[in-house]
């Protein structure tokens, strides 16, 4: 029952993510058009049909747009009928970056933390959409194991803590987008969202492929056990959960290790381990004597890694279970002021061009003394250059930030676009012209080698040169990465096949030797 329930609930979460992506599209169409006819003219008959269906559904509750907006978010912070759910990693990331948490965000922690405190790491087996992928890969790995030899490589459990701390540091300086590359379920959520709501492939898809390969090559549920920060954090929070796997020692067979062998998280119920247990139920299925069950935790000293003897109980035991979290709190204390100063220079919305995926954008950085220069290029050449009305249309936006006193430069300057070092266009500004931004609009063919020279007249003509490129000048690595992965998988498969043949031959020789010795 538990195995079936875990599959059904995780499939339900995947469908929920798809529904939320469609809901985002509905909200955009509702705000932008508020008319089924205009939606059809803009996006086609299928979009109109879905729009009208959503309108009809939300009309049953209240005003459609207000009702729809009570549901939203994606993966690590989500609202269902106004009830918020927040990943603890998301809360830590926001706290590190902004040094404050909104009330609604904090309320979203109640349900996830309550689940962890009551049942342990159940998020991984019943909610996480990525674990459904890894569950399937484990079955594929077991099937392929008949012909290929895969290693089981262990890693230190502290590896996930390192990823969590490193991710928080990067999030403090560069933003929360780093988690779409580090959190498996976030990467899958981003991939679903971009595919449905935007019709594009997310860069997070690359992370999904990497995580899948880790599980296939290095070991069953390798990513969940050693890589995922959310799983490690929830495991620490729920290591003394109210409910746990219980074992009747009098019925347990001495030589049997079925429960430990089948556990995807390498928990050993035979040693009364419960840390990192996700209550997936696989050990309950394979136990020959059915001595395992789920119930209230016994008042014993159950600890991870076989260290069940000699551990202090009570408050001391609970305090020791949260020891790995101490570096996180120190990180919050010492990085928050820096993070707040850094994010003060957040770039504004340049006419909301970034809402349109057909308009490529990229940020280029430069340095002039104590000033950091951030150049954002919006290239209207887009994906289909031959169909563009104005294929050479490029807009440049420049923000200049003083790293020492946390202020934005708004004084006079000159911007020069250089092509192979030769000025092709120059504009002098007396002050910033758009939300503390200097903007420049120019037609630039994709045959040039461009850079932007900035002269700060208010700072003794301090200069900086920022090289930049257009979208059509970039190397598209996708096909090369795909080809490299294909070659890597082929080589690994050939090696695994040879290793399996060699292993089978060794086992056959040992079997013959053992049989011959017995006959003698």
How many DSSP-defined strands? Answer: 14
> What share of residues is helical?
40-55%
Distance separating the two termini: 51 Å
Low-confidence stretches: 300-322, 332-360, 381-388
Tell me the number of helical segments per DSSP (H or I, 4 or more residues long). Answer: 20
Alpha-beta classification = alpha+beta
Shape: globular
Roughly how many Å is the radius of gyration? 28 Å
Major beta-sheet overview: 5 strands, antiparallel
What would the average pLDDT be, to the nearest integer? 75
Overview of this protein structure:
The structure is a single chain. The chain has 520 residues and is of the alpha+beta class. The protein has helices at 2-32, 36-43, 45-59, 64-68, 88-98, 103-107, 110-119, 123-126, 129-144, 158-174, 179-182, 184-198, 204-218, 222-227, 229-237, 258-262, 282-286, 314-321, 326-343, 478-519; strands at residues 72-73, 77-80, 83-86, 243-247, 292-296, 361-368, 371-379, 393-402, 407-408, 413-419, 422-429, 438-443, 450-456, 462-467. Strands 6, 7, 8, 9 and 12 form a five-stranded antiparallel sheet that branches. A four-stranded antiparallel sheet has the order 11-10-13-14, with no helix packed on it. Strands 1-2-3 form a three-stranded antiparallel sheet. The protein starts with a helix and ends with a helix.
């Amino acid at each position: 029952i538990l195995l079936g329930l875990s599959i059904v609930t995780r499939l339900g979460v995947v469908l929920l993510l798809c529904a939320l992506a469609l809901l985002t599209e509905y909200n955009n169409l509702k705000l932008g058009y508020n008319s089924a006819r205009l939606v059809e003219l803009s996006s086609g008959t299928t979009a109109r049909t879905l729009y009208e269906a959503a309108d009809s559904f939300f009309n049953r509750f209240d005003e459609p747009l207000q009702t729809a907006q009570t549901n939203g978010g994606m993966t690590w912070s989500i609202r269902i009928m106004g009830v918020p759910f927040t990943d603890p990693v998301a809360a830590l990331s926001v706290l590190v970056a902004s040094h404050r948490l909104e009330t609604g965000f904090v309320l979203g922690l109640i349900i996830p933390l309550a689940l962890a405190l009551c049942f342990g790491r159940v998020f991984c087996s019943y909610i996480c959409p990525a674990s459904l992928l890894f569950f399937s890969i484990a079955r594929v790995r077991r099937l392929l194991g008949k012909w290929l030899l895969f290693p089981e490589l262990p890693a230190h459990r502290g590896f996930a803590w390192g990823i969590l701390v490193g991710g928080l540091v990067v999030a403090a300086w560069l933003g929360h987008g780093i988690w779409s590359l580090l959190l498996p379920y976030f990467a899958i959520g981003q991939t679903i969202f971009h595919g449905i709501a935007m019709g594009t492939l997310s860069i997070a898809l690359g992370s999904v492929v990497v995580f899948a390969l880790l599980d296939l090559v290095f070991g069953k549920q390798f990513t969940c056990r050693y890589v995922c920060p959310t799983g490690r954090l929830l495991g620490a929070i729920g290591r003394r959960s109210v409910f746990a796997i219980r074992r009747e020692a009098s019925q347990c067979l001495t030589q049997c290790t079925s429960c430990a062998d089948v556990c995807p998280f390498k928990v050993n119920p035979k040693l009364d381990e419960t840390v990192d247990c996700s209550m997936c139920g696989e050990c309950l299925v394979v136990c020959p004597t059915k001595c395992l069950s789920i119930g209230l935790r016994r008042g014993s000293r159950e600890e991870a890694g076989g260290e069940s003897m000699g551990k202090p109980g009570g408050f001391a035991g609970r305090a020791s279970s949260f020891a790995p979290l101490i570096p996180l709190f120190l990180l919050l204390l010492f990085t928050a002021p820096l993070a707040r100063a850094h994010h003060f220079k957040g770039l504004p919305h340049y006419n909301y061009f970034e809402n349109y995926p057909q308009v490529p954008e990229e940020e280029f950085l430069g340095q002039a003394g104590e000033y950091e220069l951030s150049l954002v290029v919006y290239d209207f050449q887009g994906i289909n250059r031959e169909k563009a009305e104005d294929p050479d249309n490029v807009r440049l936006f420049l923000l200049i930030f003083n790293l020492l006193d946390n202020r934005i430069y708004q004084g006079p300057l000159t911007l020069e676009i250089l092509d192979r070092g030769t000025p092709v266009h120059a504009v002098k500004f007396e002050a910033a012209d758009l939300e503390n931004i200097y903007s420049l609009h120019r037609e630039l063919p994709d045959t040039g080698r461009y850079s932007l020279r900035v002269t700060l007249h208010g700072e003794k003509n301090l200069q900086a040169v920022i090289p930049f490129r257009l979208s059509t000048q970039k190397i598209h690595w996708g096909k090369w990465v795909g080809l490299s992965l294909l070659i890597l998988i082929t080589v690994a498969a050939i090696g695994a096949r040879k290793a399996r043949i060699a292993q089978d031959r060794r086992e056959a020789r040992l079997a013959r030797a053992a049989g011959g010795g017995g006959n003698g």
